[in-house]
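Handoff note, outgoing to incoming analyst
You'll be picking up this chain. Sequence as last confirmed:
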Amino acid sequence: MTRRKTGLKAAAAVGTLAVGLAACGGGGSGGSPDSGTPKKGGTLKVAGSSLPDHIDPASAYSSINQGFSRNWALTLFTNTASNTFSQTIPLVPDAAGDVPTTDNGGISKDGKTYTIKLRDGLKWNTQPARPVTAADFVRGLKRTCNPASPAGAPYYNDLIVGMDAFCKGYAKVNAKSASAMAAFQNGHDIAGYTAKDDKTLVVKLKQPAGDFLNIIAMSFASAAPKEYDNYIPDSKEFRQHTVSDGPYQMTSYDEKKFILDRNPNWDAASDKVRKAYVDRIEIDLGQDSPDQVQQQLEQGTADLAWDQPVPTTSIPRLVQAKDDRFAARDNPGVNPYIVFNMLSPNNKGALGKKQVRQAIEWAIDKSAIAKNYGGEHVAQPVGSTIAPGNVGYDANFKPYGTPGDSGDPAKCKTLLAQAGYPNGLTLKFPYRTNSNHAKNAQSIQANLQACGITAQLTPDTNGNFYGTTLVTPSDAKAGKWDIAAPGWGPDWFGNNGRSGLQPLFDGRLYGANSPDYGGYNDPATNALIDKANKTTTPEQAQQAWAAVDKQVMDDAAIVPLITQKFTMYQSKHVHGAKFLPAFQTYDYSMLWLS
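Most recent structure output, in case you need it:
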């Protein structure tokens, strides 16, 4: 973050982060072949497994979604792509003209009012071209509350004056009527998020927040054109009619392939973040085998993987060969982890009991999961909800630690019996079919079987897993699943406690699309989160978020498994690859092809 004075808290937090990263391996390894002079032209070919769970920026929360939308839905602020992790942390202006500070008048002295000026040159890809206005950004934020496919991020309601009241009213609107939703949006205002004029946004907060610019930089808060009023958010019809203010526009979309071509209205001279060297980006789907995708990349018939890291079996070979097209990039999060559906009626509501969840904490061999990703050079077991390199991390806190992180099935059996389940349980376990998730599911199934728990595995696509299976409250309450193994990384790095733990564990925010997948809701945890969000120094933030971590782990809300570097491989045609850690992807707009 580039703010001074009020931003000093954030800058110090970045220092804390850098110390933490030293413990988890420092900077990512591997190179990006950059020989030659960047040139325009060509088609970037991306191969992957499945559609993202959401296309609409108002709904899109996964790393894939937000990294993808960055090419056609600009945010007010963003991060610079880099293969040096620390360089990706500061915010830079995107649609905004500059980063507001108290010195330049963008932030009031009490830290509760932000004035954000849009830069010149912003245009929609409409015919004729139309300027992007502050009112379009207001419309964009309003759409995050839509009842059809709302955002899972809690931050805006917590901080922006009037946002919570607006969203509560919007939730009552007919989710099957685009016209009803548009009427509500256009007929109601958010008191603390207004367009002063076509180029000026004024934001009023309930309380100062040192991380607010990171929050408003998320893709949820990107601008939305008036054309979006015609469609139910994130519907099939919406996906066929996206509108762009970035360098690329979606020109073709179906379940097996979608294409981005240049936006002829994009003003390259005004965009300081993107170069947009390639003419076209083609994303081919339906390829669930990471080995198949890797083969295409090495042969040069595809250039990048869409939603899969490098296959574990390929990593030793690539490392030994010193292949400079392979890289393991820093991306400190807890990914994957086991989440419990505490709302499930199965087994007479067993997963709602803390002792049952604690039993399962002891059962899992985390070292086996790490090996699925390539071992110590790529993945490390974690003992709590906060990975190394994030605010609140405590290297000495491992409440369910076992020798070699290999688990303790005997202890699991004992606790299960004490909880009233001497004969074990039967749990429904949907798993993702892409990447290493099938291996993970089989490993977890075997661990659970060793302590008397039967896990019934069912395959699920990555898009459906995050778009429907885990985020539909009625399905959770009906017991359609009991445990699952999603992944989570903070929405930003630096002063990021609010983005690392609150979405997963603040039960007051549970609902459709919430990443608190299992409905965990504990008043003590909620109170600790509120306290942590009000901290004003890095030291206070470290202590406060560590307290949240300890409470959540005592409740056994999840089983943290590993933290991992994100492995990437590029074809021989790709140059200029720069990593975006929060999105787990290279910046497509900076790549060029030979």
